Amino acid sequence: MIVRDKPNLFQLFFTLRGSIVPLIFPQIVLIALLGTAVALTQEYFPSIFPSFTLAPLALLGVALSLFLGFRNNASYDRWWEARKQWGQLVVDARSLSRQLTTYITNDTDNGRQTQQLMVKLIIAFTHALRHHLRKSDPWTDITPYLPAAELVSLQRSKNLPDAILRLLGKYLAKAQEQGLLSDILSKCLDERITSMAQVQAACERIKHTPLPFAYMLLVHRTAYLYCFILPFGIVGTQGLFTPLFCAIVAYAFFGLDALSEELEDPFGLAANDLALTAMSRSIEINLLETLGETELPEPILPHNYLLQ
Amino acid sequence: MIVRDKPNLFQLFFTLRGSIVPLIFPQIVLIALLGTAVALTQEYFPSIFPSFTLAPLALLGVALSLFLGFRNNASYDRWWEARKQWGQLVVDARSLSRQLTTYITNDTDNGRQTQQLMVKLIIAFTHALRHHLRKSDPWTDITPYLPAAELVSLQRSKNLPDAILRLLGKYLAKAQEQGLLSDILSKCLDERITSMAQVQAACERIKHTPLPFAYMLLVHRTAYLYCFILPFGIVGTQGLFTPLFCAIVAYAFFGLDALSEELEDPFGLAANDLALTAMSRSIEINLLETLGETELPEPILPHNYLLQ
Amino acid sequence: MIVRDKPNLFQLFFTLRGSIVPLIFPQIVLIALLGTAVALTQEYFPSIFPSFTLAPLALLGVALSLFLGFRNNASYDRWWEARKQWGQLVVDARSLSRQLTTYITNDTDNGRQTQQLMVKLIIAFTHALRHHLRKSDPWTDITPYLPAAELVSLQRSKNLPDAILRLLGKYLAKAQEQGLLSDILSKCLDERITSMAQVQAACERIKHTPLPFAYMLLVHRTAYLYCFILPFGIVGTQGLFTPLFCAIVAYAFFGLDALSEELEDPFGLAANDLALTAMSRSIEINLLETLGETELPEPILPHNYLLQ
Amino acid sequence: MIVRDKPNLFQLFFTLRGSIVPLIFPQIVLIALLGTAVALTQEYFPSIFPSFTLAPLALLGVALSLFLGFRNNASYDRWWEARKQWGQLVVDARSLSRQLTTYITNDTDNGRQTQQLMVKLIIAFTHALRHHLRKSDPWTDITPYLPAAELVSLQRSKNLPDAILRLLGKYLAKAQEQGLLSDILSKCLDERITSMAQVQAACERIKHTPLPFAYMLLVHRTAYLYCFILPFGIVGTQGLFTPLFCAIVAYAFFGLDALSEELEDPFGLAANDLALTAMSRSIEINLLETLGETELPEPILPHNYLLQ
Amino acid sequence: MIVRDKPNLFQLFFTLRGSIVPLIFPQIVLIALLGTAVALTQEYFPSIFPSFTLAPLALLGVALSLFLGFRNNASYDRWWEARKQWGQLVVDARSLSRQLTTYITNDTDNGRQTQQLMVKLIIAFTHALRHHLRKSDPWTDITPYLPAAELVSLQRSKNLPDAILRLLGKYLAKAQEQGLLSDILSKCLDERITSMAQVQAACERIKHTPLPFAYMLLVHRTAYLYCFILPFGIVGTQGLFTPLFCAIVAYAFFGLDALSEELEDPFGLAANDLALTAMSRSIEINLLETLGETELPEPILPHNYLLQ
Questions:
Q1: Where do transmembrane segments lie in this chain (chains A, B, C, D, E) (predicted)?
Q2: Is B285 within 8 Å of A158 when comparing Cβ atoms?
Q3: Which of C67, C173, E36, E156 has its C-alpha lying 20 to 30 A from E105's C-alpha?
Q4: How large is the ipTM?
């Protein structure tokens, strides 16, 4: 995620960090070159594109803006829903550790250990979910928070965050059996675990179900066809300015297209993706504070405007 | 569901897998032929379509884009809601088996058997729901997970997934009567069963209530009328390029139309439908792991980019 | 609801069942006649509409498509929400009878009778709600499912479905008093009754709160003004084809308008309304099956493609 | 709320009841007069507006339709959400009184009195909320339903509906203390009271948070600028018909604007506002029926098509 | 938030309070100056921009209105969601204090103190959340409502509102341990605390996750490019009126842009931001009234139409 104040007019046009221009530079150049070729041909052989007008372009433009608008809305909804799910995870993590540290008694060793164990498992779940979604290696981040006895069985699991949740559920059931919690409060805590399972399933849904492939084809093909026709449509009136206008229009349409594609999978490390690392760290700090720890890790700060 | 990376520019134009071009090829050809006929007529009898302009086309285009945009949004919402419902099923299946295996004691034979029986019934429900939605035969997939004693009565049922849920509810009530669960925890598990009933009803709703038939008529009729008028509208300015532009515009409009139609019923086996088989298998693996099984079935992988 | 496969190209243009053409035929003819009059006048007195162009038409068209698009979305949302509410009723009816037949013991006469009584009341509620929404006579459908002793007091009620729900609540409280259910499970069943009250209130809301009347006036007036100006706007360029184009444009705009109007109240018996009769019957069959009945009524099938 | 069948074509154009024409009549006349002035000037000094075209009008029209469309959607959403909240109040009022009259025993004097007292408080809440939202005097409507002992303290309250809910909560807690309700059922009833608090807060939100003021300025200024430019843009082609077209376009744009403004605060007494009086009365009748009363007040009927 | 009645026509055009004109004045002037330069150049060297037409402008306008429309919707949704979250806070604060003052007995000193302590903590949470979102100093507002013993530990906390919620949870658990509340009612109150944690997390989400930076770049760049091309596009037909039309179009597009930017972070002190101070004060008054206090602080009133 890019975190910076609004740039001034000069910066606005020359900022590359977070911009999608680098991604679509080849397309813009391609269309501008085509525009140049058409404009020069027209300049030297004025009668070669005599009767072309904007008519088909306008008709196709209606369809294209329909496609781009739809895809942009759908992608942004996915991005924002992903953010909401992580916001829900913040609530669940904070509330569950609040409940664990207040309803389970502090007075016995067993109670204290259960609190420690379970709150740490929630931290482990948070990191494990992030690595699961980014397909990166979780073990450095989570090993300190896992009970040593369970490490081997967790390593064999096919779905690590789900296995951690099951472990959390096991400890909860044990706490209830040992009389640390009444069954009503146990239900209350169980609801938070189910809610965390819901967050995980929603993130997996967004990660593993892209927009139907056919949309991608339809949008791209129509965008390219549109931009290939464009110079023929405007060369009659714009003359040698044709390449400039082609580049500007291509920037607007391909830019929205590329941005939609980036937002479609919001869990990556690209400039406009969600700052999952910073969010997990923030949950980690909150939960350690709940346990009364005083040596807390540092929050993640943006590096060159980029927060990951 | 098509699972593949973004194709390059060449592949983009020639990929047929997952594309809707094969579906609408007849329409494109029809409109292109009409365009050819009109262009040739105009070429040899230049004065035959003298006064036609784009005016009615532009007015009709506004209506058509309204219809197509609305229908596309509605169809995509159905597709995405269907995916969300299956995501909810993932949560319910995982959470219910987590709860069954932690709250019901493992120490007695009866407890262990109840766990086994009920978790397997959840797997059976998942497969049964998929086959129910696809109107295919469920018995091969689900028989191993059903208690032999109930097989006959289930086979007589008019709505198999619903009957399995009722059976699940019966075992839950029995477990509570036998003292394996307190009534509070029993309520907690019952909520998951109700949530699974909700998933089923929502899928049945999407399956059995298509968009109002009149929309389909309205969209199709307007699209055809538009494309039939199109060549007359542009032949005056585009001359012999008329068939090309007709084909491109027809591709964009009929393409969106055909894709909307495919997404409207997301439970089929078409290229852009949901990967229900893979999702049920993934639930199956998760739940067997919860039971501590070590011989797990293989996950379903995409075949020629297509995941079903 | 119209239930049929996609018609072929020929059927597409000549299907009247489920189409809104019959509803808007007078408007189309009116506009076409006006178009004919204008075209003929122009033919014989060519200089009478000399300076008219499309400008005001295009400006008004923007407003009209805004109105029609908004109204169509709002009406479809009402229709789809109504369908969702009935889907929720399916869940509530199925879940409540599942809970009644599993949590209330089967072993005593009293338990069995309570099960029978309450599940039948749910069926009665379903039919009563349908008749309430359609303002038709419910007694033939519901009398067999009502306890004879309550018939008189129900007949005096001002809001029959609400009175049935109250009766259901009374039996539930009685069952709890008699010890057939613990208070926790009783709360669990009570939530389903409240959910059914929610379905009823939502259906009543959709039924009794149409879109603000002023929208209807605004949409209709603008649509008529647009279509009255239309022939003057296009006669200069389209000549004798004016009536044809007028009819097509009128079809598109008035068609969407009429369809929106039909969907606005989704509980009627029109071709695009919801199949409430079939859904109530399907709930009836499900619930009788839950009670172990073997003589079940037949499901409702579409008649001439129309499912009611 | 206007309640009437669809008017015929003649009525359609001349109905004023519920129409927004009276509200925007001054604007329409103003624009038409400006159009007349421009048209006459053009008639006598044909060369005075020589080069004006529709270009800036079309560009501004895009922005204007964006603004009007957005504002209309936002206002309608507020109106419909307000209606949904009152629908939720119907559910809460009906369900809470159903629960009160079934779970609290009828056999003791205390039980009967508690039922009476609390159900009447719900009626009082409904009326009080309506008057709170309309800033009218509630005491005539609610005094008969309030316990005389609490009247004074309620009259001092700064937020009457909230004070009634607190009173309802106090009686509920008392009922539980006296053993009329178990604590589980008490929680069940408490959820309904919280839900009524939610309805109140949502209505207050809609009432006290209008759309940002800057939108209003932006929409109005753009609409006026657009309509002031309009006659200059079309006089070249429409001649003496300019005032007519100006009036029609002004009707469409200002009409939508005025309607959005009316819907933005849906709790008033204007023609398109919600029928809160009728809804409160209907809740009143339902709840008195629940208490077994036989002398019920009459439902509110529309007066000259207007239901308040 | 601006609170005022609809201004009359004269005020409408000259109101600056709450308007976004002051924010975008530099852009409007810049575009108008460019328009002047182009118009004068055209006046003296008529042949210098001979062939420019509106074509590229119209094509780019489609993209621009797509971007502005999307961004406006997204920003307004954030603003309205933020308002809804604060509405939920109103419900939670009112309901939790209602429950505290009715379910915890008033008869013992301990009970009364617990009520006082906890209701005051809710007030402190409200103020702390507001200051947290506005990054301002909370201590003046909240110190009177905090227990002196906890002051030091709260001052060390990294996330003050979260720490207050944890404290609230601690007192709740203590109340339950001391037998002031049954565990079922305790769960009921705990749900409200979790709901307040949800409000906080949602507000933090809106505060710390702006729209993807790339949108901002895309919208601004396209808007500037559009307005830079604009005078060349219209000077051919509008002549010396070019600067006027440029300024009007720039006002409409940059105005919507600036307003979207202001609404994107709704927690500030700008004219169109939410009136958090007034809302917190209103909660404060409500809750003190619940405790039976009679000396209540004054509600916040708008100052020069501005309510903060």
A1: 20-42, 48-70, 213-234
A2: yes
A3: C173
A4: 0.93
